Design the sequence.
C-alpha cells in the first residue's frame, strides 16, 4: 500500500514538474483582474460594471488586443495595433469576429484624463489605462458587453506561431511594403525595411505571418485590409491550435512568457481550447468596418493625426445584430 | 530492520525513476505540430516516382528531383521560383536579398551563368523585387514581375508590373507590359504565349473593397488586357500545358480554401473550367512533360507542411468556341463556369516530411 502511494506521489511530482510552467503562467498571466470604470452617463443597454463571468456553456465576448511592445514603449503603455471583438457561442458553435479600426476616433472614458477633450484614436485607450480602459472604451462606443480580454505582444505572436510549427494561409494578393517597421530585430527602433509576401497558399513562420498581418502601407484598404488579414491569421492559428493537446501547453506557455495576458481563468482557457476544435470555418462570421460604409476618412487631420471617423448609425445596428 | 532500510534506500531511486519517467512520458505525448520539423528533401525518399525531372524549392534552397532522388543544386542563398528555358537546358531562378530580389540564369546543376537583373540599392526605396520569371516559347525573351515603377505621388505605392526583356540582353532593354491596379500588389505570374501575347494575374478591387485575382490575356505591351476569369472566382497561379491548349489554375472565390481547376485554352480565351480538386490549400500547379498530369503543392498532415502531389488528368475537354470575352476591369459577361465532370483519379502524395515553398511552382520537364 505504502509502495503504491509512494509511486503515485513520485508520478504526481513528475507531472507537476512537467506542467510547472503552465501553473506559473496560469497564476501570472491568466485570470487578470480587470475593473472597468463605471460610465458617468451610461448608454442605454450597456453594462459597465466589472465584467462578470458568463455561465459555463453560455456565449461570451472576448476583446483580443495586439500591440507593438518593443522598447519604443513603456511596459503596458502600448498602443493596440489590433483590436478584434470575438463572440464565441459554444452551444451553436458559432464565432463572430469584428475588427475595430485602430485609427477610429472615439471619445475615451472621461476618467482616464489622458487626452485633451478626451477623444483619441481607439488604439490609445490601452496605452492610457490598460485593458480596463480598452474594454470600457469599446463597451461604451460599440454598446457591447465584453466578458474577457486577451492581449498579445508582437514578439509573442511570432513565438506562438513558431511554437505551433507555422500556419497555413492563402494570401490573396501580394503584400509589399517599403516602410515596414524594423523594430523587433534589434536595430534602430524607428527604422524601416522592405517586405514582400507573395500571393497563394503557403506555410508561414512567425516572422512571415507577422509581416502579413502588420504591413499596411501598400494596401488599398489600408488598416482595414490589414484587419482582414489579421482575422485570416487568427483563424489559421485556431486551425493549428485545434491539433494541440495538454502536453503541448508547457512549450506554448514558455513561448508566450511575458507576451500574453488575459482575464480568462484557466478553466475558460481550457474550455475555449476544447471548443476551438469543434468550430468549422463555415460557422465563423468575419466583419471588418470598411470605409465608406461603416467609417470614413475626414480628409483632414485631427490633433495632427490621420484618423478614421465612425458612421455609428451603420455600425451600431451591425454590432447589435452580431453581438446580441 | 536492516532489510527494511535497504529496501527503503533502494526504493528512493525507484521513485525518482518513476517520477522522471512520468515527466519524460508526458513529453512524448506532445502533438506532432509541435514536434515535427520539416526534413530536407535530400534525406527523404519520394513515395511515388515522377516521370522526368523536376525542380522545387524549400526554405530558399533549390532541389532537383530526378529518378526518385532529390539533389540540392545552386549556391547558398534565398532561391525561389525556378523556371526552365524551352529547350530544357537552363534555368532562371529568383535570388532574394534583404531588400531586393534578382533573376539569375543557371545551368541545370545550379551553376550560375549570368545575373540577369540588378535590383539592389543602398537607398532602401530604390530597391526592387523581381519575381515570377518565365521565358517565352521561342526562348528569346524573359518575362517577370517587378515593382517598377513605384508610385511616389501620395502614399508610397509598391506594386508589381509585368516586364519583358531579351534573355540574352540587359535589364536596360526591359520593356513594361502592364500597368497595375495600384495598392493591390499588382500583376504577377506572367506566361508568354507562342503567338506573342501574354497571360498574367491581375489584382484589383471591387466596389465592396474586396481585392480579387483574375487571369488576364494581353496581346501587346500596354494593350488593353482582357480578363479570362471573373473577379468573383479569384483565379490565379496559371500553368499552361506543354501543348498550350489547357490552363491549370487555383481559384479561391474569396475563401481561405481553393479549387484546382483546368480549362481549355485557344490562345486568347478560356473554355469551361473543370474542378479537379476543391476545398483545399492547393498551390503552384505544374504540368507533366506529356501534359497528362498535374503536380501541385498542398499541405499534408497536422504540421501543415507543403508536400508535392501528383494528379493524373481525365481526358481533355474540347477546345472552346469563340466565346465573347469579358470586358476589362469588370466581371466577364461570359464567365467560364466550372462544369460537373466525372471524378478524376485521386491525387497521389509524392513527398513526405518536407516543406516545399508554396509560392514556387515546380519546373518540370
Sequence:
Amino acid at each position: 500500500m505504502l509502495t503504491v502511494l509512494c509511486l503515485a506521489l513520485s508520478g504526481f511530482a513528475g507531472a507537476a514538474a512537467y506542467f510547472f510552467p503552465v501553473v506559473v503562467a496560469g497564476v501570472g498571466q491568466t485570470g487578470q483582474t480587470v475593473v472597468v470604470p463605471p460610465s458617468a452617463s451610461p448608454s442605454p443597454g450597456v453594462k459597465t460594471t466589472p465584467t462578470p463571468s458568463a455561465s459555463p456553456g453560455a456565449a461570451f465576448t472576448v476583446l483580443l488586443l495586439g500591440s507593438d511592445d518593443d522598447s519604443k514603449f513603456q511596459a503596458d503603455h502600448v498602443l493596440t495595433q489590433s483590436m478584434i471583438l470575438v463572440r464565441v457561442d459554444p452551444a451553436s458553435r458559432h464565432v463572430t469576429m469584428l475588427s475595430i479600426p485602430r485609427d477610429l476616433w472615439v471619445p475615451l472614458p472621461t476618467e482616464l484624463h489622458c487626452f485633451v477633450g478626451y477623444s483619441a484614436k481607439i488604439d490609445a485607450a490601452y496605452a492610457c489605462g490598460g485593458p480596463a480602459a480598452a474594454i470600457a472604451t469599446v463597451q461604451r462606443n460599440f454598446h457591447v458587453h465584453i466578458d474577457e480580454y486577451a492581449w498579445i505582444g508582437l514578439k509573442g505572436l511570432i513565438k506562438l506561431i513558431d511554437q505551433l510549427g507555422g500556419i497555413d494561409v492563402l494570401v490573396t494578393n501580394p503584400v509589399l511594403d517599403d516602410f515596414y517597421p524594423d523594430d523587433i530585430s534589434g536595430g534602430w527602433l524607428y527604422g524601416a525595411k522592405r517586405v514582400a509576401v507573395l500571393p497563394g497558399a503557403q506555410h508561414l513562420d512567425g516572422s512571415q505571418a507577422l509581416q502579413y498581418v502588420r504591413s499596411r502601407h501598400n494596401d488599398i484598404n489600408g488598416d482595414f485590409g490589414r484587419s482582414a488579414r489579421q482575422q485570416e491569421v487568427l483563424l489559421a492559428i485556431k486551425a493549428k491550435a485545434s491539433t494541440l493537446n495538454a502536453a503541448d501547453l508547457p512549450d506554448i506557455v514558455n513561448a508566450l512568457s511575458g507576451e500574453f495576458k488575459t482575464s480568462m481563468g484557466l478553466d475558460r482557457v481550457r474550455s475555449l481550447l476544447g471548443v476551438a476544435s469543434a468550430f468549422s470555418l463555415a460557422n465563423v462570421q468575419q466583419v471588418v468596418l470598411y470605409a465608406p460604409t461603416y467609417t470614413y476618412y475626414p480628409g483632414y487631420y485631427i490633433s495632427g493625426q490621420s484618423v478614421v471617423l465612425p458612421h455609428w448609425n451603420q455600425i451600431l445596428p451591425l454590432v447589435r445584430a452580431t453581438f446580441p | 530492520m536492516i532489510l527494511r532500510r535497504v529496501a527503503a534506500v533502494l526504493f528512493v531511486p525507484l521513485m525518482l525513476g518513476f517520477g522522471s519517467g512520468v515527466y519524460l512520458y508526458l513529453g512524448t505525448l506532445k502533438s506532432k505540430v509541435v514536434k515535427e520539423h520539416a526534413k530536407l528533401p535530400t534525406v527523404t525518399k519520394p513515395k511515388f516516382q515522377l516521370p522526368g525531372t523536376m525542380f522545387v524549392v524549400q526554405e530558399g534552397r533549390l532541389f532537383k528531383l530526378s529518378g526518385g532522388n532529390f539533389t540540392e543544386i545552386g549556391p547558398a542563398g534565398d532561391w525561389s521560383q525556378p523556371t526552365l528555358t524551352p529547350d530544357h537546358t537552363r534555368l532562371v531562378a529568383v535570388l532574394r536579398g534583404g531588400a531586393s530580389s534578382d533573376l539569375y540564369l543557371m545551368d541545370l546543376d545550379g551553376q550560375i551563368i549570368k545575373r540577369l537583373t540588378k535590383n539592389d540599392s543602398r537607398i532602401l526605396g530604390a530597391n526592387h523585387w523581381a519575381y515570377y520569371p518565365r521565358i517565352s516559347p521561342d526562348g528569346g525573351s524573359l518575362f517577370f514581375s517587378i515593382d517598377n515603377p513605384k508610385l511616389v505621388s501620395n502614399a508610397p505605392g509598391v506594386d508589381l508590373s509585368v516586364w519583358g526583356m531579351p534573355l540574352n540582353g540587359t535589364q536596360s532593354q526591359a520593356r513594361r507590359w502592364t500597368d497595375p491596379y495600384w495598392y493591390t500588389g499588382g500583376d504577377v505570374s506572367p506566361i508568354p504565349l507562342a503567338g506573342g501575347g501574354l497571360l498574367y494575374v491581375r489584382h484589383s478591387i471591387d466596389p465592396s473593397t474586396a481585392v480579387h485575382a483574375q487571369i488576364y490575356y494581353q496581346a501587346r505591351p500596354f494593350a488593353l488586357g482582357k480578363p479570362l476569369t471573373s473577379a468573383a472566382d479569384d483565379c490565379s497561379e496559371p500553368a499552361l500545358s506543354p501543348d498550350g491548349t489547357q490552363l491549370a489554375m487555383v481559384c479561391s472565390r474569396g475563401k481561405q480554401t481553393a479549387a484546382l481547376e483546368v480549362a481549355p485554352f485557344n490562345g486568347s480565351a478560356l473554355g469551361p473550367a473543370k474542378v479537379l480538386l476543391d476545398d483545399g490549400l492547393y498551390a503552384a500547379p505544374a504540368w507533366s512533360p506529356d501534359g497528362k498530369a498535374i503536380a501541385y503543392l498542398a499541405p499534408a498532415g497536422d504540421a501543415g507542411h507543403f508536400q508535392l502531389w501528383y494528379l493524373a488528368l481525365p481526358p481533355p475537354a474540347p477546345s472552346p468556341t469563340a466565346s465573347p470575352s469579358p470586358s476589362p476591369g469588370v466581371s466577364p459577361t461570359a464567365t467560364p463556369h466550372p462544369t460537373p465532370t466525372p471524378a478524376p483519379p485521386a491525387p497521389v502524395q509524392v513527398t513526405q516530411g518536407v516543406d516545399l515553398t508554396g509560392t514556387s511552382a515546380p519546373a518540370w520537364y
